[in-house]
Amino acid sequence: MREKFLVICAASCFVIAAFAARPVRKAYAAGPIPVDCNRACLENLATEYLNALVAHDPSQLPLAKDVKYTENDQPMDVGDGFWGTASAVGHFRLCFSDVVMEQVGCMVTMQESGHLLLMGLRLRVQLGRITEVETSYYRQGGGGPSGIAALDASTPDPIFLETVPESERVSRASMIATANKYFSNLENDTGKGDLSFFADDCNRTENGMRTTNNATLSPKAEFNAFALGCKAQFASGYYAVVTRIWQRRFPIVDQERGVVWANVTFDQNGTVQTIKLTNGQTVSMGSIFNRPSSIQVTEAFKVQNGQIHRIIMVGSGLPYHLHSPWGGISDK
Hints:
By secondary structure, the protein is α+β, with helices and mostly antiparallel strands.
C-alpha cells in the first residue's frame, strides 16, 4: 500500500511540476466587447487598437487569451514586433466593417521611428473578445510603386464610404465572386478573359500610389501599363508575370458599403522574363521579376452592380512560397 501511495504521489507531483513549468498566458483585463458589435462598435475597436499600439500596451485591449496575431504572415505574440516600434498613428485611415462576421479591416498610415509606413489591419471579435489580429506592413523601399507620404496627406476616396442602396445590395457570395474574378484573370494573365467585371471608372491604388490611368508613373517604360485603366491593363496581358495567386481569403464583406476585403499571396516564379502582349509587342520583364518572389497582398474592392469600381492595396514582399498561417482557398 505504501509503495502504491508513493507511485501515485510521484505521478501527481510530476503533473503539477509540468503544469507549473508551462508558460502562462497573459490575462487581458479590458473588455468585454458588446454582443452584436455594430459598425460604430467595430470601428471604435480599431481606434482602441491603434491607441494601444502606440502606447505599447496590449493590456488596454479586450484580447482573448488565445488571440492569434501575425505580422506579414509571421505568427508572434501580441506585444512583439511592431508593438515595440510604432510611434504614432498617421493621418490616413480607411476602415470597413463586417457586422455579420464581426470583423473590421483598416488601411492606416503609421509612424515608426520617424518614418511613415502603411498598415493593413484586420480584427475579429468572438464572444466579446478579439480573437484574431492580422497585420501587414509596407515600408518605404519595400519594392513596387509607393506613395505613402501623399496618401498620408490625403483623405480616403469618398466612393469607398458611399452606402449602397438596399435595393442594389447583393449576396456576400456574389460580392466575393466578383472580387475573385480579379485574381483569376490576373494570374497568368492572357488578356483573353471576360473582363466585364471592371467598371469603366475603375482605378487602383497600390501602397499609396495610383497605378491606373497614371501616365507619369513610368513615362520611359517600353510599355507603360500604369497609363491604362483597369480593364485595358488586364486586356494587354501584361500581368502574365504573376504566375500564381493563392491562399485567397475574403474575410470581410461590408455589404452596406459594397466592399470586399481580400488577403492573398502573389507568386512570381522568375521565369517570365519576356511577355508578348495582345497587341503583338514584346516586353522585357527580366530586370524586374528575374528571381522567385512573393508578395503578401491585402486588398479592398469597391463592388457595385457586379463590377469593381475601386481597388486599394497594401503589398509587401515575402519569402517565395511562404505559407500563410491563415490558410485560404487555392492553397496548392
